[in-house]
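[stage:ingest] chain + small molecule (4'-deoxy-4'-aminopyridoxal-5'-phosphate)
[stage:ingest] validated
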Amino acid sequence: IFAKVEMAPRDPILGLNEGFAADTRAEKVNLGVGVYYDDNGKIPLLAAVRQAEKARLEAAPARGYQPIEGPAAYNAAVQNLLFGAGHDLIAAGKVVTAEALGGTGALKIGADFLKQLNPDATVYISDPSWENHRALFQNAGFKVENYPYYDAATRGVDFAAMKASLLGLPAGAIVVLHACCHNPTGADLSESQWGDVVEACRERGLVPFLDIAYQGFADGIEPDAVAVRLFGNSGLQFFVSSSFSKSFSLYGERVGALSIITDGKDESARVLSQLKRVIRTNYSNPPIHGGAIVAAVLNSPELRKMWEDELAGMRDRIREMRSSLVDKLAAEGATQDFSFVTAQRGMFSYTGLTVAQVDALRDDYGIYAVSTGRICLAALNTRNIDYVAKAIAAVTRA
Ligand code: PMP
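[stage:predict] done
[stage:export] tokens:
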């Protein structure tokens, strides 16, 4: 049965990690990852998480099956984070939330549910997008196309082209939108541009699917939810996938959620019943630990405050690395203007480095970046940033 199985192409980012692991140079730096590291180059275990875990360990709860959609306390916490506690949508029973296996799992159960609702729809993702969006929706059976997004000339969003494209889509088309901290470019929409996107979705009858994997990494929990809240106040129906991998530094626990915004209580009950069938036939119900920790932190004022401070610490450190990199590149005599790096948001920057420059960074310096020129600012720290700035200045010198 396996004789004709072909070798699948290597995941470009995981392949990069393998190359990095095999590199024996002491000064090597991996900027290809999508993970937040602290200034010591370690993935942090947040103090709020540690406290919640300690309390849980002491309580030693039984490990029965969870509800198919996950625990109510977790799902309510997710909704409050997305829309703000007490939002009308929540009070009106218009938000259906199910815990999911990370942001990826949320996208997957959303995609499988959408396939049942609208099997012939095309899915539109930004050009470029997180590398898993296309394959994930294709594997759910959809045709996937791009809408214009990044403008290499301005290193920002070509919003005129994006808007024109959305306004040309057929009714029922599914549009995947990065709610904040666009991966891989770091280029986000302004609030007024989001307002235009909401209106384009309304005008064309599109199905918005917001992906929020970095809430709190740009400006803060509330400001980073601006797109979700504009959609929330629009009266439209839409999907939101949440990930807590980064914001709680719980990558391997696989904590996320899918929220679906409906027309009202009755619709919510029907939607939830169908979503539960999707989950039940997939992995039955979510694991306990990660969701319990996130719910415990979000639902305790003391732990929540601690988490917000730690999240702000991660956000501020990335910002410092951005401005420090720009300053150091200039000091190293870089001939290009890299000031755009401080305007980009979240963990990533599309640096504009060419494939040849990325290759030179790897071959000559042991610095690994994605071949598209994407680097992770959260992999920089006070010990490696001088070396990285010197290397980038050297490989980009005209
Ligand atoms: N969406 C985007 C835009 C992402 O960048 C990521 C993770 N890198 C995800 C979804 C998936 O998140 P998770 O690891 O929680 O599955």
